[in-house]
Amino acid sequence: MITIALSKGRIFEETMPLLQAAGVTALEDPESSRKLILPTNRDDVRLIIVRASDVPTYVQYGAADLGVAGKDVLNEHGGEGLYQPLDLNIAKCRMMVAVRNDFDYESAVKQGARLRVATKYVKTAREHFASKGVHVDLIKLYGSMELAPLVGLSDAIVDLVSSGATLKANNLKAVEEIAPISSRLVVNQASLKLKRATIQPMLDAFAGAVKS
Ligand SMILES: Nc1ncnc2c1ncn2[C@@H]1O[C@H](COP(=O)(O)OP(=O)(O)OP(=O)(O)O)[C@@H](O)[C@H]1O
Ligand SMILES: O=P(O)(O)OC[C@H]1O[C@H](OP(=O)(O)OP(=O)(O)O)[C@H](O)[C@@H]1O
């Protein structure tokens, strides 16, 4: 049995065409089903539905053989025990620093003042500001980061930006790009060795179906 960990929403939707290329079709839709283990058309393949940030953990411990996770999530996890053979080029966005429209980020950084930064991506933010030599106080949040500068919780946020609509709607502006983000296929290292005969053809089919 091959177990594939996916999160609901954009990752599930954008992974489906790639799975189809590997001959795997989900028999139920996670948006309408309450099941967390979804059967597929293949007796030897099942899907498990987990939080996006939990995908690397399931694969690391071998509870799933394969998974799809954003580079944002993989950087926070650290990637331990994971083989990352393929950038799937899906769920594309950018990790950015953003501030209120009326906040002068350049001068704040130049003055060397400590910057209060709210984010779900604490490790990414810490690494980014350390590499720039900017002192920061990091405030861990689990969502709705855009609110933090509006109510005085932080000076800046580190968050994902795609269309920019969420920043615009909240009178924020992006001031720095930290990294381009897309999702990767992750594979448990032991699974790859023990189940290579089944997994390798799936990896090849995924690779052939990835759009540049
Ligand atoms: N606006 C976006 N446009 C494109 N890709 C995005 C966007 N937001 C997030 N992503 C990517 O999609 C992945 C999954 O995002 P999703 O919104 O489904 O989960 P989440 O709510 O961030 O995670 P969790 O449920 O663990 O808190 C993210 O890890 C990121 O790589
Ligand atoms: O630049 P935009 O296109 O506005 O996208 C950016 C938003 O998308 C992500 O949130 P979330 O996963 O909640 O987005 P969703 O509402 O699309 O699910 C991210 O945390 C931003 O809030």
> Into which percentage range does the β-strand content fall?
25-35%
Low-confidence stretches: none
CATH structural fold name of the largest domain: D-Maltodextrin-Binding Protein, domain 2
CATH class of the largest domain: Alpha Beta
Number of separate structural domains: 2
SS-derived structural category: alpha/beta
Largest sheet: 6 strands, mixed
Quickly give the CATH architecture of the largest domain: 3-Layer(aba) Sandwich
**Helix and strand succession?**
EHEEHEHEEHEHEEHEEHH
Portion in helices: 25-40%
Unique bound compounds: adenosine-5'-triphosphate, 1-O-pyrophosphono-5-O-phosphono-alpha-D-ribofuranose
Averaged pLDDT: 97
Secondary structure tally: strands: 11
CATH superfamily of the largest domain: Periplasmic binding protein-like II
Whole-angstrom Rg: 19 Å
The rough form would be described as elongated
Give the termini distance in whole angstroms.
Answer: 30 Å
Report what the structure shows:
- With 212 residues, the protein is of the alpha/beta class.
- The chain has two domains: 2-91 and 182-211, D-Maltodextrin-Binding Protein, domain 2, CATH 3.40.190; 93-181, D-Maltodextrin-Binding Protein, domain 2 (3-Layer(aba) Sandwich), CATH 3.40.190.10.
- The chain is built from eight helices and eleven strands.
- It has helices at residues 10-21, 55-60, 71-77, 105-111, 122-132, 165-169, 189-194, 196-209, and strands spanning 2-6, 37-39, 45-49, 66-70, 82-87, 93-100, 115-119, 136-140, 156-161, 172-181, 183-188.
- Helix 5 (122-132) links the parallel strand 7 (115-119) and strand 8 (136-140).
- The radius of gyration is 19 Å and the shape is elongated.
- The mean pLDDT is 97.
- Bound molecules: adenosine-5'-triphosphate and 1-O-pyrophosphono-5-O-phosphono-alpha-D-ribofuranose (PRP).
- Adenosine-5'-triphosphate is lined by residues 7, 9-11, 51-53, 70, 72-73, 91-93, 160, 162, 181, 183.
- 1-O-pyrophosphono-5-O-phosphono-alpha-D-ribofuranose binds next to strand 9 and helix 6.
